[in-house]
Amino acid sequence: MKLSVTAWSFPALNLQECAAISRALGIGALDVGLFYASALDKALILSDPKAAAHPLRGLGVELANYYHLFGDGLGGRNLSLPGTIDANARDLEKVLTFADAAGIASVFILPGIVNPGQSRADAARQSAESLTALLAVAKDFRARLCIEPHVHSWAESVDLVRALIDQTGIGLALDYSHFACLGYRQEEVDVLAPHAVHVHLRQAKMGALQAKFTQGTLNFPAIFGTLRAAGYEGYLALEAVHQDYMNTLTEDVLTETVALRDCFASWKGD
Q: Could you tell me if 155 and 124 are in contact, meaning their C-beta atoms sit under 8 angstroms apart?
């Protein structure tokens, strides 16, 4: 296993500055996305994916993951919205062409929300149909496609996520904090570890998607051990954030990032 840091952890920094932070911290890998000063050019990714990939090759870091949204925000063209499969599949082909050209290891998308007029079961069925089509596109690319089950999606329980995996075979961008926030015990989430394609790390506790390292309930050495036992060899993305979502504005992102880095190094025996 190896570390990366998410570019959106540092909203005021551009992409080159985020890469420099990653190098300065001895991490040397970066997750990229569509947010804040480091945002990638989504229009260029969809119109000329190889041209969009070219500047990323000069960042001097490995590229662990790209976070893609098909529409705007959580609701736009989400996987549970009927009528979106064809457009999303066309976009995904461009996205994965970009990821392969840039040397990005994996791409994560969101599972979808409960849209107006839907039940949670309706949303789950539509999401599974979407993912089946999208995985058919992804099979021809090196970058691995995965989803992040998250607070406010339809997939907010371990059982719902396991059912979706059973139906589709989709891998996960696994983030224990979303489940801890909703009251799940860490050991209940451990069953998802064998399906991890990418992993996000930040401290959390019941009712708080993000907490200071010393004030949350997640046992990170236990998470590392669980992932190793499951055969996981990918990236652990340090994802402390400073954003206006779920009251995640109060932590010192750099301090939290270093605490997570040092926790992993201690567990490894470095």
A: yes
246 pLDDT exceeds 90? no
Give per-residue pLDDT as tens, 62-112: 999 999 999 999 999 999 999 999 999 999 999 999 999 999 999 999 999
Instruction: Please tell me the pTM assigned to this model.
Output: 0.97
Return d(Cα 211, Cα 241) in angstroms, integer.
10
Dist CA 112 CA 79 (whole Å): 5
| Cα 185 off chain centre by | 21
Cβ density class 136-159: b for 16+ within 10 Å, e for less:
ebbeebebbbbbbbbeebbbbebe
Q: Number of folded domains in the chain? A: 1
- For residue 231, the domain's CATH number is 3.20.20.150
- Secondary structure string (H, E, C) spanning the chain: CEEEEEHHHCCCCCHHHHHHHHHHCCCCEEEECCCHHHCCCHHHHHHCHHHHHHHHHHCCCEEEEEECCCCCCCCCCCCCCCCCHHHHHHHHHHHHHHHHHHCCCEEEECCCCCCCCCCHHHHHHHHHHHHHHHHHHHCCCCCEEEECCCCCCCCCCHHHHHHHHHHHCCEEEEEHHHHHHCCCCHHHHHHHHHHEEEEEECCCECCECCCCCCCCCCCHHHHHHHHHHCCCCCEEEECCCCECCCCECCCCHHHHHHHHHHHHHHHHCC
Range of the domain at 107: 2-268
